[in-house]
Amino acid sequence: MQEDLLHFVWKHKKIPTTNLKTTDGVPVTVVKIGQHNHKEGPDFFNAQVRVGEQLWVGNVEIHLKSSDWYAHNHEVDDNYNSVILHVVWEDDVSVFRNDNSKIPTLELKTYIEEKLLINYENIFNATDAKFINCEKDINGVDDFVVNNWLERLFFERLEQKTEVIKELLKKSNNDWEYVLFIMLLKSFGLKINGDSFFSLQKSLNASTVSKLKNNDFQLESVLYGLLGLLEKKDCVDVYYIKLKKEYEFLKNKLELSEVGIEKPHFFKLRPPNFPTIRLSQFASMYGEHQNLFSKLISETSLEDLYTIFTVSASEYWDTHYSFGKESKKSKKKITKKFIDLIVINTIIPFKFYYAKSLRKDVNEELLNIISKIDTEDNSRINNFKKRGVTVPSAKDSQALLQLYNGYCTKNKCLQCAIGVNLLKGNT
Q: In which domain of life is the source organism classified (predicted)?
């Protein structure tokens, strides 16, 4: 039994609203259940409850046991003085406000229908579930319910992704171009080197980035140098020597520091994802597009975004993946799949938050872009597919990742539209 079930029962009126009685035998009529509060304080605000002949307007608090009131120290918290009804599964002790007035208690275990409890047990105690609690039933939920919930989860995930953008804006005095630079840099590092590339912000402030971003050679030299990729003593390649010399000059001129910067990894990476290649592609992108920020903000189609990001690493990398070691000649161009990841993880969250800061609604534009991107291929998404969930685009795969990480793994089934739908059943 979880407290969430009692919240569900109260919120969805899964008990009679009349012919109820407090544990003291006083008649109770629920006029309004109130507004569900997910933050600190009582669970339901502005409820209306008639106890006996008296109509009370105030808040409702819900617990598994009455004694939880004291376990949570509500008796000394002024925020709970406005509680007009204590709703519990089991009443094991009388409860008082901090002025010693007794709070009426409604015990739910005698009012909840058995079928609802059975549905609840089926969801939370599915002993054979290997992936998620509702894995046997999720494909039976109405498509309208699932699709609406997944769209909401997509934007919930977007909101979470904007947290780092907010922090960078605070640190940079709302320099959007600088924040875009850092976020794109992190995105080019992917999972393995994202944190390493992101740590460059410790040395590259907005002023420095402004001076470097449109000179791809200088930018490339600084990125390599700060990340410790120009420390090979035995490399005699002309391009490497030029980069190193340029970095030493710029390091002194711009007062760059390598303190706190994480070195990137090569281990377990395919050569096209080596940090040497990704950093050069990043520098080339900024060298090619003088007004990258305005271009990305103004573009409204996925095709145009593909055009912007279709760039190659500098010529040296046509025959190299790492410094001093030649390889078969091939142009190191950014692939469509890699661009998709950049758009999903950086461009869409960035455009979303930028529009929000201007109080503009670009939700339809963003949905149109991400709905054209192929579904991500990973074990979580494949597991949903095996359970009969349709995943037509990256919008849905992003939403399902939010569902899995934010709800399924935390047993928040009763805060999930799918779980609520299954629990309601025919009750």
A: Bacteria
